[in-house]
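Customer escalation, tier 2.

The customer says the design service returned an amino acid string that "doesn't look like it belongs to this structure." They asked us to rerun it and document both sides in this ticket. The original C-alpha cells are below, unchanged.
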C-alpha cells in the first residue's frame, strides 16, 4: 500500500507495481484526485487489482480511520497480511500552519502520519514480513534535528522544516530496522532525487511556488524515481542497507544515528499517543 498515490511519485509507483503484478491499495488526499488516478490506472491496466482510499492525513484521526479501513480490506482480501507499506504522502508549507492536534503541518504529514500509519498496520506488516519505505530526500543530509523547537514555532523556515521532516523519515526507518529486523521487518528511506512534480505548487505562497516551478524543470520524470521503490518491494531477500536512491544503496547523514533515532521515536510515540510493542 502507498500513500500520496494519486499524483507524482506515488502515482508512478502505483503504475509500476501494477505493471509487475502487485495488488495495490492507494491512499490519496481528495476523492476527486483519487477518482481521476483510479480511472487513469484502470484505462492502462484493465485487470488491475487496486483500490483507493482517501483522507486528510495531516489529521491523526483521519490516519486512524484510513488504517481501520485498510485493516478491514486486508482481513477480507489478504489474510491480514501486508507485504509493503510505502509512506510517501508529503507537503511543503510556506507558513507555520498546524494540524487539529496543533502540530506543524510538514512535520505532521511528512513524518507523523507515516509513523502513526505504520504503527496501526504493524500487526499486518509482521504477518506479511513487510517492507516499510519512507520517501525521504537527499535534503535530509543538510539538516540537524531542532530538538528545542521541533515544530518551528520560533521563526518558521519552510525549507528547514521540510528537510527536518525528511531526516525524521530516515530516523524512523533506522529504529524500525533496529527493533524489528529479527521479526522479518525491513525499513528503508528512499531518495527519489529531484523529480518534476507539483509538490511545491500546492498550498504554498508565491515565492515557494515560483522557486519550485523553476527548480522542478531540472527534475527527472516520476517514472524514473519509481524504479527504486519497485527494487525495494521485489526480491526474495530484503536488502540490508537503510537508504536507497537511483536503484542502489546510498550514503546518508551522520545525524541518522541511534541517539537521534531513539529520541525521535519516543517523542513521536508521545505525540501520536501510541506505543510500538517490543
Ligand atoms: N519531487 C521531488 O523532487 C521530491 C524529492 C524528494 C522527496 N520528495 C518526496 O516525495 C513524496 C511525494 O511527493 P511528489 O514530489 O510526488 O509530489 P506530489 O505529487 O505533490 O505528491 C504528494 C502526495 O501527497 C498527497 N498529500 C498532500 N497532502 C496530503 C494530506 N493532507 N493528506 C493525504 N495526502 C496528502 C498529495 O495529494 P494531493 O495532490 O491530492 O493533495 C500527493 O498525492 C513527498 O514525500 C516528497 O516530500 C519529492
Amino acid at each position: 500500500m502507498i500513500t500520496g498515490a494519486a499524483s507524482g511519485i506515488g502515482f508512478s509507483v502505483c503504475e509500476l507495481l501494477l505493471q509487475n503484478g502487485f495488488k495495490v491499495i492507494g491512499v490519496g488526499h481528495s476523492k476527486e484526485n483519487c477518482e481521476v488516478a483510479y480511472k487513469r490506472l484502470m484505462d492502462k491496466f484493465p485487470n488491475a487489482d487496486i483500490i483507493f482510499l482517501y483522507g486528510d492525513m495531516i489529521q491523526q484521526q483521519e490516519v486512524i480511520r484510513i488504517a481501520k479501513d485498510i485493516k478491514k480490506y486486508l482481513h477480507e482480501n489478504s489474510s491480514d497480511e501486508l507485504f509493503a507499506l510505502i509512506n510517501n504522502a508529503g507537503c511543503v508549507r510556506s507558513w507555520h500552519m498546524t494540524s487539529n492536534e496543533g502540530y506543524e503541518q510538514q512535520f505532521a504529514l511528512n513524518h507523523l502520519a507515516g509513523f502513526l500509519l505504520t504503527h496501526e498496520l504493524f500487526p499486518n506488516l509482521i504477518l506479511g514480513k513487510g517492507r516499510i519505505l519512507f520517501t525521504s530526500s537527499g535534503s535530509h543530509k543538510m539538516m540537524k534535528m531542532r530538538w528545542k523547537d521541533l515544530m518551528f514555532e520560533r521563526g518558521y523556515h519552510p525549507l528547514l522544516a521540510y528537510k527536518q521532516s525528511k531526516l525524521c523519515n530516515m530516523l524512523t526507518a533506522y529504529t524500525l530496522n533496529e527493533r524489528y529486523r529479527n521479526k522479518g521487518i525491513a525499513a528503508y528511506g528512499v531518495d527519489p532525487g529531484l523529480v518534476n512534480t507539483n509538490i511545491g505548487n500546492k498550498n504554498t505562497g508565491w515565492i515557494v511556488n515560483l522557486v519550485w516551478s523553476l527548480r522542478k524543470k531540472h527534475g527527472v520524470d516520476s517514472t524514473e524515481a519509481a524504479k527504486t521503490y519497485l527494487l525495494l518491494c521485489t526480491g526474495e531477500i530484503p536488502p540490508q542497507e537503510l537508504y536507497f536512491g537511483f536503484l542502489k544503496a546510498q550514503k546518508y547523514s551522520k545525524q541518522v544515528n541511534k541517539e537521534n533515532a531513539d529520541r525521535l521515536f519516543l517523542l513521536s510515540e508521545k505525540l501520536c499517543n501510541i506505543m510500538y510493542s517490543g
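Tier 2 assessment: The sequence is consistent with the input. The mean pLDDT is 97. The pocket of NAP is lined by residues 4, 6-10, 28-30, 33, 56-58, 88-91, 109-110, 135, 137, 192, 194-195, 197-199, 202, 219 (CB under 6 Å). Sent an explanation to the customer and offered a walkthrough call.
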